[in-house]
UniProtKB/TrEMBL annotation:
Keyword terms, alphabetized: Decarboxylase, Lyase, Magnesium, Metal-binding, Polyamine biosynthesis, Pyridoxal phosphate, Spermidine biosynthesis
GO MF term list: arginine decarboxylase activity; metal ion binding
Coiled-coil region: none
Pfam families named in the record: Arg_decarb_HB, Arg_decarbox_C, Orn_Arg_deC_N
Transmembrane segment boundaries: none
Protein name: Arginine decarboxylase
InterPro entries, A to Z: Ala_racemase/Decarboxylase_C, Arg_decarb_HB, Arg_decarbox_C, Arg_decrbxlase, De-COase2_N, De-COase2_pyr-phos_BS, Orn/DAP/Arg_de-COase, PLP-binding_barrel
Domain Orn/DAP/Arg decarboxylase 2 N-terminal: 72-326
Domain Arginine decarboxylase helical bundle as annotated: residue spans: 352-424
Location of the Arginine decarboxylase C-terminal helical domain: 556-605
E.C. number(s) listed in UniProt: 4.1.1.19
Task of the protein: Catalyzes the biosynthesis of agmatine from arginine.
């Protein structure tokens, strides 16, 4: 059982000796790193970031594009920028910049705070591209960046932005930032993230506006600052054909603008969209191209168009975000409870005389074997239906009902064990029907918002026991008080997990490929905040090193963020304890002490009755 790691894992993560290991240094097992941080007192969910994985993906981009630039004798140069909207967290951005020093790798910003991050952390000489709607203040920031000597391009989304740039140019003087035009393409992407492309998209200039922009730039003697055209047809483009279509359209627009007098135009920014394989299941592969094919198509098509139209081959910019960031982060989540775990033999309270159907269930439980397992399972489910009806009609009591639930769960567990190595379609149906519910110490709204909002699934697997066949069809519940906080069992992409006794051992699940978009899109529903995070690097001996821990916010800080007066909260709670007649005076100090302990901790669960967490 490899949970599709060969499909989505990209050799970043491997399975060795039944554990997930990181394919770097001495290949440490994730579970060992988790144990390490828990021994240091960090409980609840944790997010690990791996800078070597960021580097690997950026290197892959440069290697492939540079290969095809060389193979096709292409005249332009390859550049890449990281779109900050995909992950603005400091432990991501600062490490990404460290890992990419010496490459033509910069940052893309879509808002004022993102631009400030870009201006502060971009490596010297590498590009900054500014997309998104801009006011005069944001444009002025671009001019400040140019005055700092940065290689910045403001791509305009509408003619009004261009007019503002001309206005600010007069006010602030040279040096000016470069100007880019975002073009509204006819072509659009496909899939759930494809809304940013196409003629009806929110962004970019139509052909009419492009012609007007060119005139405006010429009239104001700013045409030499027009260096780039930009397009973006959407994120997670799963097929190559829309990319090719968009490239043909954009390549021709570039050539036409050049011929119409934009002689400094030398860059095409092809946006993001390079897809990530999130699927864990062979039949659900979602991408129909490789990075190789993508890079080859981009270089080849742009060369063809430039040569046909007799214009210089432009530099190529790419804004791949998801591709660079997704796999660098893994979220580790402790399992707090298996709901059927409460059904064990000790919970049986059989009476001297039991209803006949319960006697029969008990008999089934004691005599079930490999041969009769399916039949007995059907019988037991049938009996359960009848017994529950008898309860509703008042013929059996609560003890009988509880015995029914316990016996049926025990029979199910035995049956699954007998049948686990048989590939019976019936077993699949049964697994679909009788799922185990795993309660996980995390929030889907905080950590996997795209699952909640878009139904995007992420690879998930246990960190160990991978040499043992998992037997339980699993649905995953988070700890928010919201019924949407569930990843239900889906028989088209089934998840099976182990039947573990959490009183005896810990069990952790890893959610992979969560490094793109999830963190800033995550919301604090029920006031569960960003989990504690660590950056994991490797020393010269290949041992892992934990760096730059950022702890999940404590409860007082969370309330402070909501603009509560936390001093007032502390004062009120203290006063209420002091005024309470139910707490003896000599215990009040102790109660206040315990209260403060809770206030200084984060909102995730620390202990759950019965589990070791
Ligand atoms: N560039 C722009 C303008 C975007 O809007 C986006 C996100 O949709 C990206 C780049 C990053 O896209 P992706 O993460 O799919 O590479």
């Amino acid at each position: 059982m490899d949970y599709g790691i060969k499909i989505w894992g990209n050799y970043d993560y491997l399975i060795e000796d039944g554990k997930v290991v990181i394919n770097e240094g001495n290949r440490p097992a994730l579970i060992d790193i988790v144990k390490d941080v828990r021994e240091q007192g960090f409980k609840g969910p944790v997010l690990f970031r791996f800078p070597h994985i960021m580097k690997k993906h950026v290197n892959a981009l440069f290697n492939k594009f540079n290969k095809y630039i060389k193979d096709y004798e292409y005249g332009g140069t390859f550049y890449s920028v990281f779109p900050l909207k995909v992950n603005q967290y400091p432990n991501f951005v600062t490490y990404l910049m460290k890992q990419t020093k010496g490459k033509r790798y910069g940052l893309e910003a879509g808002s004022k705070p993102e631009l400030i991050i870009a201006m502060s952390y971009v490596n010297e000489g590498t590009p900054i591209v500014v997309n998104g709607f801009k006011d005069k203040e944001m444009i002025s920031l671009g001019f400040i960046s140019a005055k700092m000597g940065q290689n910045i391009t403001l791509t305009i989304e509408g003619l009004n932005e261009l007019e503002t740039i001309l206005e600010v140019a007069k006010e602030m003087g040279e040096p000016y930032p470069n100007i880019g035009l975002r073009i509204k393409l006819h072509s659009s992407g496909i899939g759930i993230w494809a809304k940013s492309g196409g003629i009806n998209s929110k962004f970019g200039l139509t052909s009419v506006e492009l012609v007007e922009a060119l005139k405006l730039l010429k009239d104001s003697k700013m045409i030499d600052y027009l260096t780039m055209i930009h397009f973006h047809i959407g994120s997670q483009i799963s097929e190559i054909s829309p990319v090719k279509k968009a490239l043909r359209e954009a390549g021709n627009i570039y050539a036409e603008l050049y011929k119409m007098g934009a002689k400094s135009l030398k860059r095409i920014d092809i946006g993001g969209g390079l897809a990530v394989e999130y699927s864990q299941h062979k039949l659900q592969h979602s991408i129909n191209y490789t990075l190789d094919e993508y890079a080859s198509d981009v270089v080849f098509l742009l060369k063809m168009i430039a040569n046909n139209k007799n214009v210089p081959e432009p530099d190529i910019f790419i804004e791949a975000g998801r591709f660079v960031a997704a796999s660098h982060a893994v979220l580790i989540v402790p399992v707090l409870e298996l709901f059927s775990q409460e059904y064990n033999e000790q919970k049986l309270c059989l009476k001297e005389v039991n209803p006949p159907l319960i006697e029969e269930l008990y008999e089934l439980y004691n005599t079930i074997n490999e041969k009769n397992a399916i039949e007995y399972l059907h019988d037991s489910l049938d009996h359960m239906e009848s017994l529950l009806t008898l309860f509703d009609l008042g013929y059996i009591d609560l003890i009988d009902r509880s015995n029914t639930e316990v016996l049926v769960h025990l029979i199910i567990r035995k049956a699954i064990n007998f049948l686990k190595n048989k590939n019976l379609s019936e077993l699949r149906d049964i697994q679909d029907m009788i799922q185990e519910r795993y309660l996980l110490n995390f929030s889907i709204f905080q950590s996997l918002p795209d699952y909640w909002g878009l139904g995007q699934t992420f690879p998930v697997m246990p960190l160990d026991k991978l040499d043992i066949t998992p037997t339980r069809s699993a649905s995953l519940w988070d700890i928010t008080c919201d019924s949407d906080g569930e990843i239900a069992f889906d028989s088209t992409k089934p998840l099976f997990l182990h039947d573990v006794d959490l009183k005896k051992e810990d069990y952790f699940l890893g959610f992979f490929l969560v490094g793109a978009y999830q963190e800033t899109l995550g919301m604090e529903h029920n006031l569960f905040t960003h989990p504690t995070e660590f950056v994991v690097t490797f020393d010269e001996e290949g041992n892992y090193v934990l760096n730059d821990v950022i702890e999940a916010q404590n409860i007082l800080d969370i309330l402070d963020d909501l603009d509560y007066d936390v001093k007032d909260i502390e004062r009120r709670l203290k006063q209420r304890i002091e005024d309470s007649e139910l707490i003896p005076d000599d215990e009040k100090k102790e109660v206040i002490g315990s209260l403060y302990l809770v206030l200084s901790e984060n909102s995730y669960l620390k202990t759950v009755a019965g589990s070791r967490n």
